[in-house]
Specification:
The protein is of the alpha+beta class. 17% of the residues lie in helices and 29% in strands. It has one domain: protein yfey like fold. The radius of gyration is 21 Å and the shape is globular.
C-alpha cells in the first residue's frame, strides 16, 4: 500500500513539473513571453516561428534612425511593435515593446482591454505625462507606460497641454489605447 501511494505521488510530481512552458503572453518587468530584455534582433525569427516578423528599412541607412519591427500573427493581427536600440544592427537588443494584442497581460491581469481604474488598483502609478493627444501613465514596478487617449478625459483636460494631470482627474473607466514596456 505504501509503495502504491509513493509511486502515485512521484507520478503526480513528474506530471506537474513537466508543464513548465513559459506563458507566451505574460508581461513582466524583464520579459514578454519568450522575449527578454537581452533578446537580440537576429533572434526574433526563432522566438516567433509561427508569426510574421516585419522589418522596415529606412530610406537612408546612414540616418541612424531606429526602425520599428512589427510582429503579426499569420492571420494578419498585429501583436507587437519592437524598437531596437540600434537601427539596422542584428546584434542590437530590443529597448522597448509596444503591446497591441489584448492577450498580452501582466501578472495582475492588466492588458490593452484594461482601464485606468484597473491600473490604479493593481500598481503604484509613478508618473502621469500630459501629451498632445494622450496621457501616458508610467508604472516603474514593471517598466511600463500606458497610453490613454485624451478623448477619454473630461473636456476641460483635453486641450491644455501645460496643465499637470493628477490621478483623481482621470476617470476610472478610461480605456488603455496601448502600452509599452521599456528595458
Amino acid at each position: 500500500m505504501k509503495n502504491t501511494i509513493l509511486i502515485l505521488a512521484i507520478c503526480l510530481l513528474l506530471a506537474t513539473s513537466c508543464n513548465n512552458e513559459p506563458n507566451p503572453f505574460l508581461v513582466e518587468k524583464n520579459h514578454i513571453g519568450l522575449l527578454t530584455d537581452s533578446t537580440q534582433v537576429r533572434e526574433l525569427d526563432a522566438i516567433f516561428p509561427n508569426d510574421s516578423v516585419v522589418r522596415y528599412i529606412a530610406g537612408d541607412e546612414f540616418a541612424g534612425s531606429v526602425n520599428t519591427i512589427e510582429i503579426f500573427e499569420k492571420t494578419g493581427k498585429k501583436l507587437l511593435d519592437l524598437s531596437p536600440e540600434e537601427a539596422l544592427d542584428s546584434t542590437s537588443v530590443i529597448s522597448s515593446v509596444r503591446i497591441m494584442d489584448e492577450r498580452y497581460k501582466t501578472e495582475k491581469q492588466i492588458s490593452t482591454m484594461s482601464t485606468f481604474g484597473d491600473i490604479k488598483n493593481a500598481y503604484k502609478i509613478s508618473k502621469i505625462n500630459n501629451l498632445i493627444n494622450a496621457v501616458v501613465v508610467s508604472v516603474d514596478e514593471i517598466n511600463a507606460s500606458f497610453t490613454i487617449d485624451k478623448n477619454e478625459l473630461p473636456a476641460s483636460l483635453r486641450f491644455d497641454m501645460d496643465s499637470s494631470i493628477d490621478e483623481i482627474q482621470i476617470p476610472e473607466k478610461a480605456k488603455i489605447k496601448y502600452f509599452f514596456i521599456h528595458w
